[in-house]
Design brief:
- This protein is an alpha+beta fold.
- It has two domains: 144 residues, Jelly Rolls (Sandwich); 78 residues, Orthogonal Bundle (Arc Repressor Mutant, subunit A).
- It is 40% helix and 25% strand.
- It has a five-stranded antiparallel sheet with strand order 1-2-9-4-7.
- A hairpin with a 5-residue loop joins strand 5 and strand 6.
- The chain is elongated, with a radius of gyration of 19 Å.
């Protein structure tokens, strides 16, 4: 973990929400914000740890992990640059983090003081609307995948995960996947061996190609059919 210095006023990687703030509001944000770089695999914040900040992901990819029954970790989402983490901490009754955030790649994050963030939401309606839109988009995506994981058979769940990576996380095809097969298994709720088997079947069917960690969707129509059939 490395502490970085950078002014919110001069930042070239502002979120859509922060872009609507005026110069005085940006200066206020700057006073309550600190920027840090994490290496791959580092813990950004821990489930059950004390709540102090709202986190803005400036660069990189982060996995969000929730501890389940029997102490087993469940990956419920992958966040990319431009995401806010810990927005549920805006509730002053929230004292501890609901989940853990762990960097999948080198990542830069801004830690924003919770009270500072709340004050900006109160002062600037457009800023609040932009933040709310971010929450809505991320939660709808999560709910869709949660329902699919409950209702679909394993091939459908893995097809849905591949589509999620291409469309929502990396926004391109081919894409370099930063997750291991064990982490994919944690995301879809199965074993690493089952993930390996289904991925091999998809390759043999000509649906995808995997070269090291580079995934290419070769037949989007067939992948979508498997998603729909579940």
């Amino acid at each position: 973990m490395n502490i970085l210095t950078n002014s919110c006023v001069d930042c070239t990687l502002k979120s859509n929400a922060v872009s609507v703030l005026d110069s005085n509001e940006l200066c206020a944000l700057d006073e309550g914000c600190s920027r840090t770089r994490y290496e791959k695999g580092e813990l950004i914040f821990k489930e059950g740890g004390p709540v102090q900040h709202i986190i803005y992901l400036r660069e990189g990819f982060v996995k969000l992990v929730k501890r389940g029954a029997g102490g087993k970790d469940f990956i419920f989402s992958i966040s990319k640059k431009g995401s806010y983490l810990g927005l549920q901490n805006l509730n002053k009754e929230t004292k501890t983090n609901f989940y853990s955030a762990i960097s999948l790649t080198q990542a830069e994050v801004c830690f924003i003081d919770r009270d500072c963030f709340i004050n900006l939401l109160k002062q600037n309606g457009e800023f609040a609307l932009q933040v709310l839109s971010t929450v809505f988009s991320e939660e709808m995506n999560y709910f869709d995948r949660l329902v699919n994981n409950v209702q679909q058979q394993l091939p459908g769940r893995i097809a849905n995960a591949i589509s999620y990576f291409a469309r929502e996380v990396y926004s391109k095809n081919p894409f370099v996947l930063n997750l291991t097969q064990t982490e994919i298994a944690s995301l879809v709720g199965t074993s690493r061996e089952s993930v390996s088997r289904i991925l091999k079947e998809f390759q043999e069917m000509g649906i995808i190609s995997i070269q090291r960690n580079v995934f290419t969707i070769l037949n989007e129509t067939r992948l979508e059919e498997i998603k729909q059939k579940g």
